[in-house]
C-alpha cells in the first residue's frame, strides 16, 4: 500500500490552497491524499474536513482521498503522521496566526522536526499552479543536499519541466589566502564551486536523463541567490541536515529565509 501525501487543514484559505497543490502533487506522484485536521477535544470542526474534502474532489474527482481528525497539538499531530507519509503539505499561515506573520508557527515547527519532506505552499496562483515550468534546488557543499537533489529531479521529471541547481559561495571572512588570487580561485583551493554542483547532480542526472538541468554558481549570500532564482519557479527545494544528538533538523538561516520569503512553494527535504 502506497504511503499517502498528507495535507494539514484548519479551515484557513492558506490550507485550502495547500489542498489544491496537494491534489495536483498526488496525481503526479500517483499517491493517495490524506487530509489531517488537529483539534482540541470538544472543538471538533467537521465542516473543515467536509470543505477540504469537497475542494479536493472538485480539483480531481478521481483522487484517492481519506481524512482524519486528531485531538492533539497540530505540529505534533503532523510530525507524527509524517513518519508514515511521502510528504507533508502545509499552508504558509493558519487561522491562529497573527496578521502580518510571514510564516505560521505550525508550519515552521513541522518543517524543523518532520522525518519526511515538508512542502510549505507560498506565492501567488502562477507559482502554485506550475505556470513557469521550472524547479529550483539549492546545493550546498558537503552532504546536506543529496536527498534534496534527488527530490528535485523527480519533481522536474514528473512535471516535465526544467531544473535549475543553484550553488552560492563566498570567500570566508578573514581568510584572504595567497596574494593575487581571485575570489573564485581562492574558493577553488578547497573545491571549485562548479565542481560542487557537478558532483551533486551527477547521480540524479544519470537516473533522470529526460530532465533538462542547468547550473548556476553565484558569488554571494545563499539566501538571496535562492530567492532570486525562485522568482520564476514553481517549486524551490532545499535540504536540511539532521541535528547530531538532538531531535529535529538544522534548518539554518538560509532555510528560515526561504520559508519566510520565497515567492513560490518551498520543499524542505531531510537528508537521509
TrEMBL record:
InterPro entries per the UniProt record, alphabetical: Rossmann-like_a/b/a_fold, Universal_stress_UspA, UspA
Coiled-coil segments: none
Domain named UspA: residues: 5-49, 52-122, 132-270
Family according to the record: Belongs to the universal stress protein A family.
Protein's name in the database: Universal stress protein
Origin species: Streptomyces bottropensis
